């Protein structure tokens, strides 16, 4: 029985090579430092702070509350130092030492408490029915011996678990793999968003004329591009992110690259990302560009529309609920009944009490695999979208505009005169 459980877990383990997460306390301190010192780190998490929302949650719901609130601490970006630590030969001891502090372990409080209670009940009821040994090792008569002689110990044969374990393993593998595919696709889509946003500003630097009017339009185009990325992040994060988005839009207003009326119109729009994309299209419509250059920039904006739709598809379409629920029910019934199959096997321990930790270990890893699949199924609240918007998009575009304005791309030290015949304009 135990050998089969081990083999079932082995089917899943290779799919998750990453080691267990670091201690929650150290992760929180690291992210807090990242938020207050953005110049020295690759990622800024705007909402990392104390988990006050968990403090007033009843103990029996704290697991699910932690699982939701802790998602903001999983928005990790790896640079050189992080990869060195990730590959460190000390990771084994670090991972074992921090099992109790891992986010997965703290998210499973409800499930593990129920399974532990079932295992304790299994041991106690069989002690009452079949007898037990006291601390001196002397056998004691069962308090419910009159009942026990008719029904015997309450236990289950291992065969049903032996037959069903491979099926449960396959369900969990598929569940977790599908969640990872969704996470990976979301990250790939945001990579495309970053590249397309950079291309819009790069093309604007190349094609927009240098007169004051077009320079102002170029700055507005860059601002609307940054606003688009943040509006898409806002859509994927929900209403709790509205205040952050509004503050970011008014930062653009303070810089003089967006009107207050446009910021309010964006907040009032039913589809904020599309509003920002429409504003970008309006900017290139007003610019003095020839048709070919306008079409090139418009192609980049079109790609952003496609990427927006792909993000909406992932966000609005979960893994089919019939599959998710059946897997969860299968796993729940399996782990709740598991103590009754392990009880006969643990007869060498004092009064079969080894049933409880054995059940807990198996339940922890099986429920942990399911929890990982649940956590990564909706990827946008664990991807570091703040870092993408603020660093990879907004900061990079600001630098591109500033360098162009300062003439840092004129490597010969002077600008060549632009003839009207070389790039005909459309009035």
Automatic annotation (TrEMBL):
GO MF, any single term: chloride channel activity
KW Cell membrane (keyword) present: yes
Compartment(s) where it occurs, according to its Swiss-Prot or TrEMBL record: Cell membrane
Keywords, alphabetical: Cell membrane, Ion transport, Membrane, Signal, Transmembrane, Transmembrane helix, Transport
Source organism superkingdom: Eukaryota
Residues in the signal sequence: 1-20
GO terms under cellular component: plasma membrane
Primary site of residence: membrane
Record membrane topology: Multi-pass membrane protein
Listed PANTHER family: UPF0187 PROTEIN YNEE, VOLTAGE-DEPENDENT ANION CHANNEL-FORMING PROTEIN YNEE
Protein name: Uncharacterized protein
């Amino acid at each position: 029985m135990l050998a089969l459980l081990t083999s079932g877990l082995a089917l899943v383990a290779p799919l998750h090579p990453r080691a267990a997460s670091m201690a929650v306390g150290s992760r929180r301190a690291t992210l807090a430092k990242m938020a207050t010192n953005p110049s020295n780190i690759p990622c800024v998490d705007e909402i990392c702070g104390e988990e006050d929302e968990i403090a007033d949650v009843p103990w029996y719901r704290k697991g699910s509350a932690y699982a939701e609130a802790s998602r903001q601490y999983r928005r990790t970006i790896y640079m050189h130092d992080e990869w060195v630590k990730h590959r460190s030969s000390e990771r084994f001891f670090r991972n074992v030492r921090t099992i109790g502090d891992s986010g997965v372990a703290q998210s499973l409080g409800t499930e593990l408490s129920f399974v532990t209670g079932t295992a304790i009940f299994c041991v106690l009821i069989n002690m009452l029915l079949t007898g037990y040994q006291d601390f001196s090792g002397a056998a004691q008569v069962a308090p419910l011996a009159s009942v026990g002689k008719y029904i015997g110990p309450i236990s289950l044969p291992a065969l049903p678990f032996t037959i069903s374990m491979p099926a449960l393993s396959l369900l969990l593998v598929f569940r977790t793999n599908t969640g990872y595919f969704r996470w990976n696709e979301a990250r790939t889509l945001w990579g495309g968003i970053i590249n397309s946003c950079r291309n819009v500003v790069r093309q604007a630097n190349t094609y927009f004329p240098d007169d004051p009017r077009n320079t102002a339009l170029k700055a507005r185009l860059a601002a609307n591009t940054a606003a688009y990325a943040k509006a898409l992040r806002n859509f994927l994060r929900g209403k709790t992110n509205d205040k952050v988005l509004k503050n970011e839009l008014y930062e653009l207003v303070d810089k003089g690259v967006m009107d207050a009326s446009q910021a309010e119109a964006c907040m009032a729009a039913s589809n904020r990302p599309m509003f920002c994309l429409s504003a970008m299209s309006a900017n290139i419509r007003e610019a003095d560009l020839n048709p070919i250059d306008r079409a090139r920039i418009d192609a980049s904006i079109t790609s952003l529309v496609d990427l927006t739709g792909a993000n909406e598809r992932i966000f609005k379409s979960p893994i089919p609920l019939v599959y998710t629920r059946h897997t969860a029910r299968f796993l729940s019934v399996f782990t709740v009944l598991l103590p009754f199959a392990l009880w006969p096997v643990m007869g060498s321990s004092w009064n079969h009490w080894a049933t409880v930790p054995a059940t807990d270990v198996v339940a922890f890893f099986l429920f942990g695999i399911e929890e990982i699949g649940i956590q990564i199924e909706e990827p946008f609240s664990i991807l570091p979208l703040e870092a993408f918007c603020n660093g990879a998009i907004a900061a990079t575009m600001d630098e591109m505009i500033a360098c162009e304005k300062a003439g840092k791309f004129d490597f010969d030290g002077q600008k060549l005169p632009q003839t009207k015949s070389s790039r005909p304009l459309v009035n």
